[in-house]
Amino acid sequence: MVAPLKVGIAGLGTVGAEVVRLIEQQSRVLSSRCGRGVRLVAVTACSKAKKRGLDLQGVEWARNPLALANDPGVDCFVELMGGAGEPALSAIEAALKAGKSVVTANKALIARHGLKLARAAEQSGAALNFEAAVGAAIPVVKTLREGLAGTAVNRVYGILNGTCNYILTRMEQEGLSFAECLKDAQRLGYAEANPSFDVDGHDTAQKLAILASLAFGTRVSQSAIYVEGISSIAPEDLRAAAELGYRVKLLGVAVRTAKGIEQRVHPTMVPKTSSIAQVMGVTNAVTIDGEGIPPITLVGPGAGGAATASAVVADIADVARGVRALPFGRPVERLRKIEKAPMERHEGGYYIRLMARDLAGTAATIATRLAEQKISIESIVQRHANGVDAVQIAGKAAPVPVILITYATSEDAVYRALDAVQRDKVISGRPQVIRIEKN
Amino acid sequence: MVAPLKVGIAGLGTVGAEVVRLIEQQSRVLSSRCGRGVRLVAVTACSKAKKRGLDLQGVEWARNPLALANDPGVDCFVELMGGAGEPALSAIEAALKAGKSVVTANKALIARHGLKLARAAEQSGAALNFEAAVGAAIPVVKTLREGLAGTAVNRVYGILNGTCNYILTRMEQEGLSFAECLKDAQRLGYAEANPSFDVDGHDTAQKLAILASLAFGTRVSQSAIYVEGISSIAPEDLRAAAELGYRVKLLGVAVRTAKGIEQRVHPTMVPKTSSIAQVMGVTNAVTIDGEGIPPITLVGPGAGGAATASAVVADIADVARGVRALPFGRPVERLRKIEKAPMERHEGGYYIRLMARDLAGTAATIATRLAEQKISIESIVQRHANGVDAVQIAGKAAPVPVILITYATSEDAVYRALDAVQRDKVISGRPQVIRIEKN
C-alpha cells in the first residue's frame, strides 16, 4: 500500500469547509478508488478563531498560505482562497516549485496567471488541476483535457454564469426588467452587491479563457476576449426572441474560424430547441462541437459549496492516483498565442430591434440600407404597442418597434447599415443588436 | 522523449476504420497531449481484402485477434470487433495477462465479463478502458470513474439507446404508432432488422450495468436488472403524458434505496421540464445525482463511427499518458454483490390508463380499490374519444379511457388495486402502467 496523500488546504470558506468534510466522509471510498489514502494534514485561513463546525483535531494550522505550500509534510496544496493575485499566486508557485501538486478552484488566477503556473507545474512534473474553476462539478475541464484528447474541437460555448442565467430566465418567464431581476438575484444571494463582475460578462470571460485554451491549444488570455454584458437586454427582446423561436442567453463562445480562434462573451440568441436553450435558472452548461461528431452538452451546477468541493476532491483524487495531465492539455511551449477577435469581422445572423418613426418610410429605408450592405433578411416583424404582431407594415404616428432577423453577414456590414438608417432619421433611439448562434 | 505507444487494433468496421483515421490525423496533437507518440503498428479484421479506404502501409496485419493481443510489438490492444464472447474475450484476456493495456467499445463483453477482465487488468497493472461502451463520445465513464471520485452518487439514469428515443420522439411528435416508427427507424438504419435487442431494453440494460457498477461500487451484473421495453407504449400514452406535464422515455435507472441498489430499464414518465426530457431523436443523455449537489446531465451522440472513435482515441491517449484507473473505479474485491431489484417493492408515482366500461361506476370502484391499498391520486383525467378532456366523469356507453397519476406508492400496491379493479369487471382490456421518475 502506498503512503497516503497528505493534503494541505489554504482557505476555509464555504468550499474549503466542504472539502474538509468530503475528505473525511469519503475517506474509505477515496482510498479504495486511489489505491492510497487521502489525508488532510494542514490548513490555513484568515481567522483561526472562526466557528466552522469542522473537526480539525490533529490537523496542523499553518501560519499563512506560503508556509503551508512550503510545508515538507504536505504533498498536495489545495488553494481555495480566491483572488486573481496574492497570496494565492505566490503560494501556488512555491508549491509547484517544490514539486507538490496543486488543486485550485480559482478561475481568476488561472485566467490571469495560468500560463506561468502551468510552466512551473511542467518543470517540476507536478499536477495543476482546476476542474472547479469552470462550471464547478460539471466535468468540463476533464472532458476537454482528456475526454476529447483525440478529437479536434471546432467550437465550445456555454452558459458559464448562473447569476446572468437566473436574471435572463426570470426576465423571460415573468416579463420583468433587468433591474428588477437583478435586485431579486441580490436579495437571494445569487448576485453580489456590486454585480458588474457577473452581469457585465467578466466572470464568463475568465472561464471562457480557460476553456478556449483547453479546447484549441491557445494561450489562456482573458484580454483576447470580446466582452459584452446583459444589462442592455429588455423584456421585449426576450418576447420577440421567443416568438421567433429563440432564447437569449449570456454565452461565452470560442470558435475556430478562417481568421483564427474567435473568443467572445455577449448576450446571444440561441434556437429554442438547442440543448443550451433549455438551461434555466442558475444552472450552467457547456456545449462542445467536436470535428465530425454531434455536439456534446454538459449541464449542471456551476457554483455552490458542495458542487465546487466535489470537483476539488476529484482533482485531489487524480493527484493521489498519480495522474499528471498537462494543465492546459498540451505543453506550454506548444500553446499558440491568441489575438483578440476583431468583432467587426464576426460573421453570423443578427437580431435587430428598431423604433420606427414612420413605418412605411422606415421599412423602405431599412430594406435599402441593408441591401446596400448585401444583408439578407430572414424575417421581419412589426409589433404594435398592444402586443399584436403584423407582418404587414402600415403607417403609424408613435414610434413602433420593428424586429429583423438577418441571414449570416458580417458585423461591420450590420453597423454600416444601421448607421445609415440612423442618418436617415427614420428611427428613434439606438437600435438593439443581438448576435445569433446556431447549433 | 518516451517511446511512442504502439497500438494494435482488432476490428476494422466503421469504428475501427475511424480510429485508424483519427490516430493518423491527430498524430501531432496526440503526441503533444500525451508527451509521446501514438502509433498504429498492427491490425486484424475478418477480411484483409475488403476496401476500407485506409492507408495501412507499414502496419502489420495480424493472423487473428489473439495473435495481435500476444504480439510483443503491441503495447495497447484495441478491441473493436464486438460480441459478448469470442474471439474478443480471449484476446482481451491474453493482452491483459501480458501486461498490455486494453481499450474496447464492447458493452456486451464488459457487461458480461467485466469483472473477470477487470481482475486480470488489476493483476497485471494494465488499464482496461471502455468509455465508448456507454454513450459513445459522452464522457460518462470518465465522469463516474474520475470526475465524481469524491462524491457519493445517489442515482444515475439515462437515455442510453438512440433507437428507442428516436421511436418515442417520432411517436410523440407525429402521433404515430410504435410499429410505424419502428419501420421508419429500420428504413433509416437506426434499428436492426431484428430490433428486439434495442426496443426490448437489453442494449440499455448492458450499458446501465456498467454505469451502476461505476456509480455504486457494485459488481457489474446485467442479470440484476429489471428490463421492460417500449413496444407496449401507445400514442395515447404520449399524448396523455404531454397533457399532464410529462414525456415518456426509455430510461435505464440505477438508484440507491433503503433496500439496496435498484437497477431497472423501462418506459418512464419524466417531468417535461427536466434536462432528460429535452433529449430528442437518437441523442443519448445521462443524469447523475450526487450527494448534496444538483444533478449533472451529459448529453450527446450515443452511437456512430466518429463519436465512438472519439472516445476510443481518448482512452488510448490515457493509456499513452500512463493513466491506470481501476476499470470500475474500485478494486474488484471491493465491489459489492448486487441482487436483482424486486420490482414489486419499487416505490414511486405511477401513470395508469384504463378503459372504463361505465364511467360513473368505474370511478367509484377505482377510487375504492386504490384507497384500500392506501394509494393517493394526484390527478385523474377522463378523455372523450374526440380528444376533449373532462375531469368531471359522466356516464357513457362505449369504453372510455381514464388516466390516473398516483402519488408515490409501492408497485405491489398498484397491481393489487388493479387486479381488484379487473375482478370488478368495470374495465375492458389490461390497464397500461408506466412508472414516473421525478427529477
Task: Offer a quick outline of the entry.
The first copy, chain A, has 439 residues and is an alpha/beta fold. The first copy, chain A, has helices spanning 14-25, 27-34, 65-70, 88-97, 107-124, 140-147, 162-174, 178-187, 196-199, 202-216, 235-243, 305-320, 359-372, 411-423; strands at residues 5-10, 38-44, 60-61, 76-79, 101-104, 128-129, 153-159, 226-227, 246-257, 260-271, 283-290, 296-301, 347-356, 377-383, 389-390, 400-406, 409-410, 427-436. Chain A folds into three domains: 5-137 and 307-330, Rossmann fold; 140-301, 2-Layer Sandwich (Dihydrodipicolinate Reductase, domain 2); 344-436, Alpha-Beta Plaits (2-Layer Sandwich).
**What is the number of strand segments of chain A?**
18
**For the record, what CATH class of the largest domain in chain A applies?**
Alpha Beta
CATH architecture descriptor of the largest domain in chain A: 2-Layer Sandwich
Straight-line N-to-C gap of chain A: 49 Å
The fraction of residues assigned to DSSP E strands of chain A is 25-35%
Mean pLDDT over all positions of chain A: 93
